[in-house]
Amino acid sequence: MIKCFCTPIWVFRIEQHEAVSNELMSLITSLRKGEAGDPAGVSRSNQGGGWQSAFIDMTRIPLFQKALGGVMQTVAAQVGIRENSSMIVNGCWANVNLHGSYNRVHTHPDSMYSGAYYVKTPKDCGRFVALDPRPQARCITLPIDVHTPLTSPAYNHLPKEGEFVIFPSWMPHHVEENKSGEERISVAFNLFFGS
Predict the structure, then answer these.
(1) Which Pfam families does the annotation name (predicted)?
(2) 0.85 exceeded by the pTM?
(3) Could you tell me the CATH number of the domain that includes residue 94?
């Protein structure tokens, strides 16, 4: 079998993620209090009362920046991006999903890769859902009993704390409703590689 036009999704759980998560929680707490940002947040894909920050200056989160650079080196090598290419983060923001909130289906224009790092993921906080980006693939349903990566119309991933989920920016995706009594917290990002 030859697999053509595959859509890769990478999941990395970084070692000693507690330090990265603590750095991010400290900044997010500060942003939500209005000490270093807008406590009202902004509206992008958040629905049902979720909060999203304005773009975050990456120099304020050096541990996260280093971790992101490390995982993206692996992605770049697997995809075959030229070694002398530079990684440019053109957007980074925090997401806080309260009970009942979610992120609607969307893509991330003006970037090559996007993703999220999961700071806090309580039980029943919802899955990351990537949708098959090929509209023609949904024109007819195959008579199958169990979906495989070759036939599934969606990929569902239950994120864990300390985990990066990275995907092509053009891939439609959403985050399910948080049904837990706690906040789901992540930091999302967009980036591209330049020469």
Answers:
(1) 2OG-FeII_Oxy_5
(2) yes
(3) 2.60.120.620
